[in-house]
Amino acid sequence: MNRRRFLSATTTASLTLGAKRGFAAVRDDFPRARSAAYLDNASCHPLSVHSAAAVHRYIDWETNEVGEPWWPQWARARDESKKLFAALINAKPSEIAFARSTIEAESNLLNGMNIEATGGNVVTNDLHYSAAIYNYRMRQQDGLDVRIVKNRDWRTEVRDMERAVDKKTKLISIALVSNVNGYLQDVKALSDLAHAHGAYLYADIIQCAGAIPIDVRAMGIDIAACSTYKWLMGVKGYGFYYVREDLQGTVVKPTQHSGGVRFNYAPWTESPEAGLDDFAFKPVTGPGRYEVSYPSYEGAISAQESLRYIHELGVANIRTHVRTLTDRLQKELPAIGYPSITPHGNESPICSFVARDPGRTMEKLRAAGVHVAMRFGNKMRISPSVYNNQQDIDRLLAALG
Ligand SMILES: Cc1ncc(COP(=O)(O)O)c(C=O)c1O
Q1: pLDDT of residue 255
Q2: What is the pLDDT of residues 241-277, one digit of tens each?
């Protein structure tokens, strides 16, 4: 496919989307909705037909074409996806690097802050993602002072976090929305707490970016990261790392270097430049300092397409639609014997319930073609998205009722 065909195909997909209105039409964009009542978007969101078409065009090009367009075309997808993501969370494009994984980005952050060298500590809580807690436990073994605050009745109390923070705290790290029960942390109170102690707030936003409005400025989030394969409706291996501009290279040092050098001597060059080093280089500045090599272009392309889609629908509208589904689950599931472990009125697309007999519950749901997650033994997590509707919820309730 040549560049003109690529661009015109992309534009057609956007126009088709633009012509559609309402969430009934959105359902048609996600063919998975036809084969099952898929209510496990917190594990992995399906691709829309628009993102799938964009990735197919790339694969088609990789398979069949040679020559132009080479990387500038695909680099544009990377750059536009970063801009669209910046707009989504009210950051500046100069604050967004591409990332490969949320957990990798948090690890890079910890390496870059080098907190153990300063004798500082990190405060987190047990509603952060289990792999992140694992990361902290491993670093504890290497001498990092880590304080993991336990939840009370499936919420993190700010007063418990306050008790763990002291003047040596350098970082408060949270999952803004918990993957366990969808609990939305009181992020402003926690960022105020961090800032009052000269610390910073990191938010893992993978379970909410694209699903609820995020404003890093208003929420006081200093650093954040997510992959695109959940509520950003993309694929694995591509995501974003937000680092507040004034922290880049100072508080958050890059730890994996990626760039190029100029070989300033023969036989590399016929005209070496006087006064220049043999291996001359300029350190990368801006968010690029956190990026390593090429991104996954499949990731960048699907993210570009799905972020356009999310902006077009509007995150506030997405939230309003999904709230009608989670509100109903919160009301009706406890009444049929599944008590909720998600606080009422919680602003996220995830709600979880305790199943008395998890094995039997999953059997019934599978037989009815309903997909949910059963985690931590008996915690049934249900996470509807834009293309789900009340019939999906009817199906789940009928299977369990
Ligand atoms: C809260 C949370 N953080 C991190 C991850 C893992 O993210 P990644 O695969 O981007 O490292 C998950 C995956 O389920 C998650 O739910």
Answers
A1: 94
A2: 999 999 999 999 999 999 999 999 999 999 999 999 9
Distance CA(231)–CA(384), nearest Å, equals 10
4: confidence class by pLDDT, cuts 50, 70, 90:
very low
Residue 366 has pLDDT above 60, yes or no: yes
Ligand 1 centre and the CA of 103: distance in Å? 6
One domain, residues 279 and 235: no
236 C-alpha to center of ligand 1: Å?
A: 10
Rounding to the nearest 10 degrees, give the CA dihedral for residues 126, 116, 215, 286. -150
Distance CA 47, CA 33 (A): 11
Q: Which atom of ligand 1 is nearest to the CA of 179?
A: 16
Q: Are residues 291 and 201 in the same domain?
A: yes
Pocket test for ligand 1, best of 98, 104, 207 (most atoms within 8 A of CB): 207
The CA distance from 290 to 251, in Å, is 13
* Widest pairwise Cα distance in the chain: 81
Is 103's C-beta closer than 6 angstroms to any atom of ligand 1?
yes
Residues 359, 250 within the same domain:
no
Q: In the predicted model, is pLDDT for residue 390 greater than 90?
A: yes
pTM above 0.90, yes or no: yes
Output the CA–CA distances (angstroms, integers) from residue 182 to 128, 351, 355, in the order listed.
11, 6, 17
Note whether residue 72 is domain-resident: no
Is 87:311 a contact under the CB 8 Å cutoff?
yes
Give me the domain span that covers residue 231.
78-257+284-310
Return the ∠ at Cα 280 (arms to 275 and 281), rounded to 5°: 135
- List pLDDT tens digits, range 133-179: 999 999 999 999 999 999 999 999 999 999 999 999 999 999 999 99
238 lines ligand 1 (CB under 6 A): no
Cα pseudo-dihedral 289, 290, 291, 292, rounded to 10: 90
- Looking at the structure, tell me whether residues 220 and 232 fall in a common domain: yes
Overall domain count for the chain: 3
Whether 99 lines ligand 1, by a CB cut-off of 6 Å, is no
Mean pLDDT of 202-212: 98
